[in-house]
């Protein structure tokens, strides 16, 4: 049985950068502890990745805050979390189809997701994995996730429960 951990968008801009929140800063110790529970070959990560044209994209028009521009300090994964990963998926939108396809093709039995933002990228990636690999058990550790706000974090957890994703540490 192969169980993997997916760290979603644990990047400087989402922690204490242009879109940082106190909630994201608060989960840093729990995320680092969780990472230690998995061997590097069982850890995957995503990086929100934007380019100079971000403000002209649909997302940029709806969220006109420059963030996670490839190569910038804000785009980089939090330094303490750079602990080795089997694969890192750069994505220019909320979810990574490549991640979902990887989970399906690698015959993974269980996926645990953690990271930022619960109500945007965590929920999107969980649903994509559920869609691409419906028999894979999916869980989200709520103590290792932060949303745009506490209310949106909690609402996302309820949505995930409705989609048969196990919620841990809520």
Task: Give the helix/strand class.
Answer: alpha/beta
What is the annotated CATH architecture? 3-Layer(aba) Sandwich
Quaternary:
single chain
* N/C terminus separation: 26 Å
Q: Which fold name is given in CATH as the topology?
A: Rossmann fold
Report the β-strand fraction as a percent range.
Answer: 15-25%
Q: If you average the pLDDT, what whole number results?
A: 96
- 3D shape: globular
CATH superfamily: Isochorismatase-like
Just give the CATH class: Alpha Beta
Number of strands: 6
Name the strands of the widest sheet in spatial order: 3-2-1-4-5-6
Helix segment count? 6
Tally the structural domains. Answer: 1
Biggest beta-sheet profile = 6 strands, parallel
Low-confidence parts: none
Structural write-up:
- With 170 residues, the chain is α/β, with parallel strands linked by helices.
- The protein has one domain (3-168): Isochorismatase-like (Rossmann fold).
- 35% of the residues lie in helices and 22% in strands.
- It has 6 helices and 6 strands; from the N terminus they run βααβαβαβαβαβ.
- It has helices at 12-15, 22-35, 58-62, 97-105, 118-132, 150-162; strands at residues 3-8, 43-48, 87-91, 110-116, 137-146, 166-168.
- Strands 3-2-1-4-5-6 form a 6-stranded parallel β-sheet.
- β4 (110-116), α5 (118-132) and β5 (137-146) form a beta-alpha-beta unit.
- The longest helix has 15 residues, at 118-132.
- The two termini are 26 Å apart.
Task: List key phrases describing it.
170 residues; alpha/beta; Rossmann fold; 6 helices
């Amino acid at each position: 049985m192969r169980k993997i951990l997916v760290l979603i968008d644990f990047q400087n801009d989402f922690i204490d950068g242009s879109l940082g929140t106190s909630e994201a800063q608060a989960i840093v110790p729990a995320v680092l502890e969780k990472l230690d529970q998995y061997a590097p070959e069982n850890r995957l990560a995503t990086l929100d990745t934007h380019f100079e044209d971000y403000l002209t994209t649909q997302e940029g028009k709806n969220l006109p805050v420059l963030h996670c521009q490839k190569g910038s300090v804000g785009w980089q994964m939090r330094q303490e979390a750079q602990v080795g990963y089997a694969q890192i998926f750069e994505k220019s939108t909320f979810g990574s189809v490549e991640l979902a396809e990887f989970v399906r093709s690698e015959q993974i039995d269980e996926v645990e997701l953690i990271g930022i933002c619960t109500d945007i990228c965590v929920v999107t990636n969980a649903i994509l994995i559920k869609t691409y690999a419906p028999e894979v058990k999916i869980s989200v550790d709520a103590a290792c996730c932060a949303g745009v706000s506490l209310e949106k974090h909690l609402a996302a957890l309820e949505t995930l429960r409705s989609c048969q994703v196990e919620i841990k540490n809520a």
